[in-house]
Amino acid sequence: MQEPEEKKIALELLETEQAYVNRLHLLDQIFYTELMKEAKNGKTVPEEVVKMIFSNISSIYQFHAKFFLPELQKRMEDWSCNPRIGDVIQKLAPFLKMYGEYVKNFDKAVELITVWSEKSPPFQELIADIQKRKVCANLTLQHHMLEPVQRIPRYELLLKDYVRKLPPESPDRDDAEKALEMIFMVAKHSNAAIAEMERLQNLWAVYQRLGLEDDIVDPSNELIKEGPIQKVSTRNNSTSEKYLFLFNNMLLYCVPKVIQVGAEFQVHLRINVDGMKVRELNDTQFPHTFLVSGKQRTLELQAR
């Protein structure tokens, strides 16, 4: 007899989970444990660095090896009398939020591996030695570390497929649909964590270009647009190169620094967005000009 489609997908979920737990075992019990042991002996890198590279991989490994995989195995053994996995995945979903921390840390972890491999030959040698083992299947540490980042999207795809193939009268339909919704929310949570991290990194880079002025550095600001602009001087009919940063709450009018040591720009003026007005001008001598007026002052600017 042909296996029902939904059972095939549930079995695929179980098989990929077994392979995934092996990968987590390699990351936590081999790479992390051995690198940590050498770090404690003071031979390779500081212990803190190893902890930062592997983030919360131990919690993720324990959860999948001791809870999720055994629950799935039990389910698939009982499939003939209890064909369902939706409730198990519902129990799993809230714990997947701990991936947020791992995913957020991933780029930093990869960067640390590169930096310390150059700084510490014994560190690089130990990683290379582990990578030569059969269990690594000729793949790098970085490649194995990518697996947890891709795991939640994989659950989402498998579960979508599972729900699609379920017969309408299946006893697992309600649970499976609810589980899919929960996994979708976790994936969104994980993506939001990455987006927020990128936003803060970009914001910090902008603040560095501005010379880290105390009253400007604020993590809640959002950069909307930046770019060069010409300042029109009506007094002597000329323009000079300036630079604008538009945030959600302020417009920074800056002068590019000639000698770029440290900051790239000097903030000459700040106009609060609250109460700011922008008006286009019809100036034949200077096309594309507009007026920006705020409580602080008014500027006549020319765009490209």
Automatic annotation (TrEMBL):
Q: Where is the signal peptide?
A: none
Q: Which InterPro entries match?
A: DBL_dom_sf, DH_dom, FYVE_RhoGEF_PH, PH-like_dom_sf, PH_domain, SOS1_NGEF_PH
The places in or outside the cell where this protein is found are: Cytoplasm, Cytoskeleton
**PH domain: which residues?**
222-304
Do you know which Pfam families this protein is assigned to? RhoGEF, SOS1_NGEF_PH
Domain of life of the source = Eukaryota
Q: Name one GO molecular function term.
A: guanyl-nucleotide exchange factor activity
What SMART domains does the record tag this protein with? RhoGEF
Sorted alphabetically, which PANTHER family does this protein's record hold? FACIOGENITAL DYSPLASIA PROTEIN (PTHR12673), FYVE, RHOGEF AND PH DOMAIN-CONTAINING PROTEIN 2 (PTHR12673:SF82)
The name this protein goes by in its record: FYVE, RhoGEF and PH domain-containing protein 2
